[in-house]
């Protein structure tokens, strides 16, 4: 339980760390942001496959592959359902429209921003918590590291649009902190859910893996390929994927 708590606050705190970096640099070029986000996408991809999807098949027994496939699709459909009601992160953040922050009222933008990031962060936290429901601690750590690394660049890129919208530094930091706390809640929820009802573990692992795959494909890769630096982002993804494979092998 102590390791789960440390992980929960570590995963959530990664967003805050990214926010601090964002305050220091304020404006991060698209090139470096795409490379960092590409690396994080590779890390998450390896974490989803090695730490969630493969264990789901293993714990599912005779019907493991069927449960896994259904869980992955269910996780992806869950986030697709959410996306129908919550705009994409980069659209809300105005990353491509930083020079025209007047498009939304400040208060509306803050509410939408927090809601979008919170909803997208919740499944990531659940994925980290669910992974600790297994006996594979190294796999759980792999998943958590992948999510935490993805949260750092996310925390970095949300700062500039918020400041550009006229939000105070204090409130911007509190918003970043709130989005991190959502992942803490999600981690604890995921852990207790599979601990209380262990029979749902194979489905829960696949479901969490599906949500991560959806985020990678629908949010992260398109974002890294939309500014002309897709080659660097692609190699960064491969490096991130390989790094996590090596870590999982030796941990």
SSE diagram, text form:
Elements: H1 2-25, H2 30-59, H3 64-83, H4 89-93, H5 106-131, H6 137-157, H7 159-164, H8 169-196, H9 201-224, H10 230-250
Any overview of this molecule?
The protein is mostly helical. The chain has one domain. It is 82% helix and 0% strand. The chain contains 10 helices and no strands. Helix 1 packs antiparallel against helix 8 (169-196) and helix 3 packs across helix 9 (201-224). The radius of gyration is 17 Å and the shape is globular. The two termini are 19 Å apart. Residues 92-107 have low confidence and may be disordered.
Straight-line N-to-C gap: 19 Å
- In round numbers, the mean pLDDT is 77
Helix and strand run: HHHHHHHHHH
Please tally the helical runs, counting DSSP H or I stretches of 4 or more residues: 10
Number of separate domains: 1
State the shape: globular
Radius of gyration: 17 Å
Please tally the β strands and state the result.
Answer: 0
Main sheet characteristics = none
Low-confidence stretches: 92-107
Oligomer: single chain
- Helices and strands: which structural class? mainly alpha
Instruction: Give the proportion of residues in helices.
Output: over 70%
Strand content is under 5%
């Amino acid at each position: 339980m102590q390791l789960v708590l440390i992980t929960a606050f570590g995963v959530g705190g990664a967003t805050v760390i990214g926010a601090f970096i964002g305050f220091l640099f304020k404006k991060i070029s698209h090139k470096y942001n795409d490379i960092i986000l590409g690396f994080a996408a590779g890390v998450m991809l390896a974490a989803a496959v090695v730490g969630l999807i493969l264990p789901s098949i293993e714990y599912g027994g005779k019907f493991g592959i069927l449960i896994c496939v259904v869980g992955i699709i269910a996780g992806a459909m869950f986030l697709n359902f959410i996306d129908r009601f919550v705009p994409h992160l980069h659209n809300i953040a105005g990353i491509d429209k930083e020079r025209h922050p007047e498009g939304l009222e400040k208060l509306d933008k803050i509410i939408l921003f927090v809601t979008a990031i919170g909803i997208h962060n919740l499944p990531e936290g659940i994925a980290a918590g669910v992974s600790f429901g297994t006996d594979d601690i190294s796999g759980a750590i792999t998943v958590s590291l992948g999510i935490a690394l993805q949260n750092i660049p996310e925390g970095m890129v949300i700062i500039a649009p918020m400041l550009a919208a006229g939000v105070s530094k204090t409130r911007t930091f509190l918003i970043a902190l709130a989005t991190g706390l959502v992942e803490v809640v999600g981690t604890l929820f995921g852990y207790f859910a599979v601990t209380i009802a262990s029979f749902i573990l194979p489905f829960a692992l696949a479901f969490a893996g599906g949500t991560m795959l959806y985020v990678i494909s629908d949010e992260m890769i398109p974002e890294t390929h939309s500014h002309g630096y897709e080659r660097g982002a692609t190699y960064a993804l491969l490096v991130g994927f390989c790094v996590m494979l090596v870590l999982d092998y030796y941990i």
